[in-house]
Amino acid sequence: MAEAGQQRALNTAFAPPPPLWKHFTPGNLKKLEEIKREASKREDGKPRKKEWPPSDLRSLALPPELRFLVPPEIPSGNYSVFGEVQNLSTALPSLEEQGINQLYPSSPRPGPNGEPPAQPAQPLNHAYYLLKISKSLLLNFLELVGILSTTPDQFEPKIEDIRNLFINAHHLLNLYRPHQARESLIMMMEEQLSRTREEIREMDKLKEELTAVLDQLAAEGVDVGSTIQPPTGDDRKAVKPEEHVSEDSQLVWDIIDELDR
C-alpha cells in the first residue's frame, strides 16, 4: 500500500521531492564525515587526507540512512525520474518499442548485422499522416461528445483513442527535430557568412573611395606620402605643434574623417 501511494505521488503533475531528502540532515552529514575520517586513517592510526570518489564511498559499511548521501552510479541506459523511465540514447524510439499503437507506417530498418533492409526505404510523408490524424481527432471528439450525451459511463475507450492519436501526432512532429536542428544551423551559418561578406564589401567600398581621394590629391600636387614623426626626448619641448604637423597630412586625415562619417 505504501509503495502504491509513493508511486502515485511520483506520477502527479507537481510531484513532491523524494522521501530520501529527509536523510540530508547536518547530523547525518557529520556522521558521514566521521566515518570517512576513520576509514582514511593509516595503519599507525594517524589521519590521512584522502579523496573519496562515489565508488569508494559505496564500498564503505554505511548505515541505511547514510547511504542516501552517497551519489549513485552514473546511469548507462535507462533511469527513472518522477516515476517515468527515461532513456539516455539520443535516438528517438519508435512507438512500437514503447508499446503504443502506431497509426502510420514505419520505414524498413536494417538487419541485426547492419545489412540493408530487404525493401528500399520509402520517404515518410509526415504532412499527409499529420493531416489524417488531425481529421481523426475531430471525428473522435465528435464521437466522444455523442457518447457523453447518451452513455457517459462508456467514455474511457474513446478517451484512450484520442490519447493515442495525440501521441502519434506528437511523435511525428518529433521526427522533424533532427531536420529542424540541421536547418537552424544552416540558417545561422548563412547569416554569419552574409554578415561577413557585407563587412568585406563595406571595407572594399571605403578602400576605393580612399584610393580615389588620394589619387585626386596626388594629381593636384599634394604630398600624400608625408607622415608625422612624433617628437622624442628633449625635442618635444623645442618643437612647436605648427612645425610637426604638415598642412598636407592634416588635409588627408580630415578627408578620411569625412568619409568615415
From TrEMBL:
One of its GO terms (cellular component) is core mediator complex. Residues 186-220 form a coiled coil. Residues 1-58, 101-121, 224-246 are annotated as: Disordered. Keywords: Activator, Coiled coil, Nucleus, Transcription, Transcription regulation. InterPro entries: Med7/Med21-like, Mediatior_Med7, Mediatior_Med7_sf. Its main location: nucleus. Residues 107-120 have a biased composition (Pro residues). Residues 30-53, 233-246 have a biased composition (Basic and acidic residues). GO terms for molecular function: transcription coregulator activity. One of its GO terms (biological process) is regulation of transcription by RNA polymerase II. It comes from the Eukaryota. Gene3D superfamilies: 6.10.140.1520, 6.10.140.200. Pfam families: Med7 (PF05983). It is found in: Nucleus. Belongs to the Mediator complex subunit 7 family. Component of the Mediator complex. Component of the Mediator complex, a coactivator involved in the regulated transcription of nearly all RNA polymerase II-dependent genes. Mediator functions as a bridge to convey information from gene-specific regulatory proteins to the basal RNA polymerase II transcription machinery. Mediator is recruited to promoters by direct interactions with regulatory proteins and serves as a scaffold for the assembly of a functional preinitiation complex with RNA polymerase II and the general transcription factors. This is Mediator of RNA polymerase II transcription subunit 7. It comes from Aspergillus calidoustus.
